[in-house]
Write the structure tokens for this entry.
Amino acid sequence: MNTNSKNKSKNFIRHIIDADLKQGKNDSKVCTRFPPEPNGFLHIGHAQSICLNFGIAKEFNGKCYLRFDDTNPAKEKEDFVTAIKEDIDWLGFEYEESLTYASDYFEDFYQYAMQLIADGNAYVDSQNSDEIKNTRGTLSEPGIESAYRNRSINENEGLFERMRSGEFENGENVLRAKIDMASPNINLRDPIIYRILHVEHQRTGNDWCIYPMYDFAHTLSDAIEGITHSLCTLEFEDHRPLYEWFLDQLELPSQPRQIEFSRLNIEHTLTSKRKLATLVSNGTVTGWDDPRMPTLSGMRKRGYTASSIRDFCSRVGITKKDKSIQMALLENSVREDLDINSPRRMAVIEPLKIIIKNYDSDEVEYVDAVNHPKNPEMGKRKMAFGKELYIETTDFMEDPPSKFFRLKPGGEVRLRFAYIIKCEEVIKDEAGNILEIHCTYDTDTKSGTGQSEKKVKGTIHWVSAKENRPASVNLFETLFNHSEPKSEADINPNSLTVCRNAIVEKSIDEANSGDRFQFERSGYFIFEQKTNDGLMQFNRIITLRDSWAKIKKN
Ligand code: ATP
Ligand code: MG
């Protein structure tokens, strides 16, 4: 796998910017923007756009605006603004000096629209929305000109003013750019630039009852802010001629350049706000920040680190090719970061009791456990070892296959940081369920003492039955079974497993909410909080090894 070497590689957008700077364009300045619509939470696709826009501004000593594209009050909420800011803060980008809202420019937009009218470049259409839709034409047929298309400038000015002052109902009139109903590009067939919407706006209240359409508001906002390179996803390629038309017709403070790149798609998940919103409203997930969601807030709750997401975005890179990235690539970035930074602990997710028959029942021995095998600076801790312990249920098999090097009847295994034990007896209930395993330990085999040369093939983790903390552990799988999910029918019914009988070593008591650990042999986990019934609640961030490789192989 290609790793950090790729991080600094130049994508085609950086080449364009380099060339523009060489030619002295834009007074040698670079200015970008990230323009989310506050109608949902940000997802991993947005992270790519954030890293690109803020990253480029930083690299070229420029500026990146965080501009809320709040032009559709029917769908937008202040809560989403708050959530989006929180996500960008978390990702580690700064926008204090560059936070704007499209609604800051509503008066400017109105004046520019008036200018279009005055120049004969816009008209008020009184057709209803169905009529407008039905006269747009198709890819093979031109559209049909509206009967209102040739209204006089005076009449248009009067009508547009009356639209603003609230004289008309929703949908009674729209303002359209007067371009070309026969254009092969449907976006240029007299696109609507203003519509009537008697809806209170989260920031401007009831000041307006007409709102600008995306293409118009977006182009003008870019020009007003002095954006030099307006980076957007490929679905806007066909809108670029319209973007440029506005720039050509109006005398604007600057002439931004739109450049498109391909959206980030990841297998087994969705990167569409609209589809994610459906999962939330249907209750398929617990909310936008459900740890299974590809939202930044979900991934944060899941335990992913911001730096691993930035690393992933830079590895994926920016292209014009449409493709789906494997989930394994994202997980690799997360795993690499956690491997380096997470202290090791022991936890048993599904406990099986072990009784060491030849160990004194009153005795407790404290063994040294290293916190990180590759980083001695992370130090050591003491773990209580005693007569009664728990191991993972899956680490014992009564009738194992030949390559099973964990505990089996008559077999020996090393308990990590402690002794070698031997399975002497399997205790069952009447129904044949295993209740506990009786073992003996070999007194000469204490780890780190070099007392004995004895070697066994398997080493397993364990937790003292006397000194531990009860825990509840959430295990996640992908939200969708299908690699290219389309609908809720592709939901993975096993995407969440809650293990409420888990046991963690006592030292974790000191953990703060948000602390991450590697539970040896199980994966990386984040401590959320204590549940109402006193259990320490953890989310499994990710397994230790790439489980995708195995799935592919089978
Ligand atoms: P969605 O389809 O998820 O609702 P959107 O484009 O409608 O996304 P916006 O709030 O308009 O949502 O997006 C803000 C910015 O993020 C836009 O510039 C958009 O191009 C970019 N963006 C959105 N999704 C992706 C993605 N999957 N990959 C890269 N950039 C994206
Ligand atoms: Mg959008």
